[in-house]
Amino acid sequence: MDKLMAFIKRVSEATDAMLERVLPPEERYPASIHALMRYSSFAGGKRVRPCLVAAAYEACGGADGDERVFKAAAAIEMLHTFSLIHDDLPCMDDDDFRRGKPTAHKAFGEALAVLGGDALCILAFETLASVGRIDIISEIASALGTSGMLGGQVVDIESEGLHVGRETVEYIHMNKTAALIRASIRVGALLADAPADALERLSSYGNNVGLAFQVVDDILDEEGTTETLGKDAGSDAEKGKATYPAVVGMDESKKYAHELIEKAWADIAFLGDKGAILKDLAEYIRVRIS
């Protein structure tokens, strides 16, 4: 895993440098919203989605030194952060901690958290516009809309406290989480001008990895602690959330997570050695429950 850790460090540093470049300075008026945007953006996230952008780009033969990759990666990270800020709000999941720190609404107030999330979303698309690819803007917008993240969030909220089936949980996870992960992979491949057949296989990889990521999160919410997770542990069960452990049990959830990673590996077998980092990133997700 040494090679993967070096890759994650390289991509995280490049993404953070781009975020530093595009985010308004904290002292710019009105300072409060800019402070919130930076507080949430530099709160220590794993930068999984930027890593997937860069890994797909490099696996598909993208040239070195293309700053569009990290503009796209930074934009996707801002969109992910915006979704977390809103997800944590009292009207949503009402969480107190994220990444080991007080959530945005706890640190800055609810109204500013709403506006700060909105601002990150808008800035993300401004940054994407500078990439100069309409297809990439469309790809990410689709992943965020009612057929993606927002749709998943709606069904997640409406399912709280209900006895829903596996199909509903799969819909929530595939849209709320996997959609943006799949888009991250596709954006990297599109920037590298990958052929249609490669893009299709990478899309399947993104779906499987994205779903596995959320299944693992469901498992860790029950088995982890607030200290190790950096967010409120046990909140899913407390709120009656539609999760895999709640619907199929812990053993079946772990089995399914492993199966999804195996499917993801099969999806990228065509890449050979060029897909090594993508394979390692999938394993990185799985080892959290090994």
What descriptors fit this protein?
Farnesyl Diphosphate Synthase; 290 residues; single chain; 1% strand
Detailed description of the structure:
The longest helix has 28 residues. The chain starts with a helix and ends with a helix. A hairpin with a 2-residue loop joins β1 and β2. The chain has one domain: Farnesyl Diphosphate Synthase. A two-stranded antiparallel ribbon has the order 1-2. By secondary structure, it is mainly alpha-helical. The chain is built from 15 helices and 2 strands.
Order of helices and strands: HHHHEEHHHHHHHHHHH
What's the level 1 CATH class? Mainly Alpha
Helix fraction, binned, reads over 70%
* Biggest sheet overview: 2 strands, antiparallel
**Annotated CATH architecture:** Orthogonal Bundle
CATH-defined topology = Farnesyl Diphosphate Synthase
Q: Gyration radius, to the nearest Å?
A: 18 Å
Task: Please identify the structural class as seen in this structure.
Answer: mainly alpha
| Tally of structural domains | 1
Mean of pLDDT: 93
Low-confidence stretches: none
Global shape: globular
- According to DSSP, the number of beta strands is 2
Kindly report the spatial arrangement of strands forming the biggest sheet.
Answer: 1-2
Strand content: under 5%
Number of helices: 15
